[in-house]
Amino acid sequence: MDSRQFLGLQATHNPHRWVLPVVTGISTGGGFLYGGCGLGAAVAAMEGTSGRRAVWATAQYLSYAKPGEVMDIDVTLAVHGHQITQARAVCHVGDREILTVNAALGDRDLEASGQWEKMPTNIPRPHECKERPHVLDWSGTVSGRMDQRIIKGREEIEELDGTPGDGQVLLWSRIPEVIEGIDAATLAILGDFVPMGVGQSLGIRGGGNSLDNTLRIGTLVPTEWVLLDIRIHMVGRGFGHGLVHMFAEDGTLMATASQSCIVRFWRDMPGPGPAGKAKK
Known about the structure:
By secondary structure, the protein is an alpha+beta fold. It has one domain: Porin, CATH 2.40.160.210. Helix content is 15%, strand content 39%. It contains 5 helices and 13 strands. Strands 1-2-4-5-6-3-10-13-12-11-9-8-7 form a 13-stranded antiparallel β-sheet. Strand 1 and strand 2 form a beta hairpin. Helix 2 (35-50) packs antiparallel against helix 3. The termini are far apart. Residues 126-263 form the Acyl-CoA thioesterase-like C-terminal domain. InterPro entries: ACOT8-like_C, Acyl-CoA_hotdog, HotDog_dom_sf.
């Protein structure tokens, strides 16, 4: 299975229109399309229409698509040059716009290269790490289709006691169903974890809803697991901001994902913050 099959993305007779049936398997436990799957589908659609690989893509999340709905993805190739295509994808359910994605796609024959951001050292391998526990029943959702092993972070719900952390979470992550190699769409799905990092960094039983996500893609290499180095930069005014570095097992920095999110508490979950107080 590749990333398009995982998402359920379908081509149409019009090369500029794609469709994504929204099902539980690409949705959150809250019952709406997972932001990383929306961005991944848009990136895959733009790559399919242009015939080029994504360099970067940025999504603005506007509304929610729910299981049972079908999201149309309309691709526009605004500029199609010799080496680079500038494109956008408008993703909508009927007249309701769900997200808009702008992107650049292409490859250039240039020998110069380098990587200055390094993967954290002395970290255990995935099989040596504890599986990330799920607070809620996420079976059948996109979270249930991911395999994640926690290196640094709060493993138990009791640890989310309102005590702030240092702003970093480390996870090994993979999508076992996607066995045909890492691509930009897969990294879009795996990289949507700034909201989770916000909850961990604040020490709250919560996270957030994404406002945006900017994916920047470098060199892709074969790897089963991807290391997510989640860095939360700041939280204020009810919003959180952070970045995810995505490393292959050999240390190659394959992509980064930068996000802002609305900070929210989990419903009906006792503990620090408004949700816990309301429960009491």
